């Protein structure tokens, strides 16, 4: 019984989604990637891309998406 309860606690974290933040620039030859653990209710990662023309820096980010994200932000 204790093993079953332990499995119920651990199982959701095994299937948890991970998204990443990705930072790169024209001068940086090794871009940095940082992983983010999503909450259990997240079902997908969505991409956000921003570019700053003055310093040639761009940020590519994949944030955690929940099922009601598009109804809140009107995708």
From TrEMBL:
This protein's UniProt keywords: Signal
Signal peptide: 1-16
Top-level taxon: Eukaryota
Organism: Trichostrongylus colubriformis
InterPro entries: Snake_toxin-like_sf
Lineage: Eukaryota, Metazoa, Ecdysozoa, Nematoda, Chromadorea
Designated name of the protein: UPAR/Ly6 domain-containing protein
């Amino acid at each position: 019984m204790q093993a079953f309860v332990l499995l119920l606690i651990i199982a959701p974290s095994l299937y948890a989604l991970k998204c990443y933040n990705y930072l790169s620039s024209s001068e940086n030859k090794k871009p940095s990637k940082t992983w983010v653990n999503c909450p259990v209710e997240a079902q997908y990662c969505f991409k956000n891309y921003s570019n700053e023309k003055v310093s040639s820096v761009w940020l590519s980010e994949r944030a955690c998406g929940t099922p009601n994200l598009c109804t809140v932000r009107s995708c």
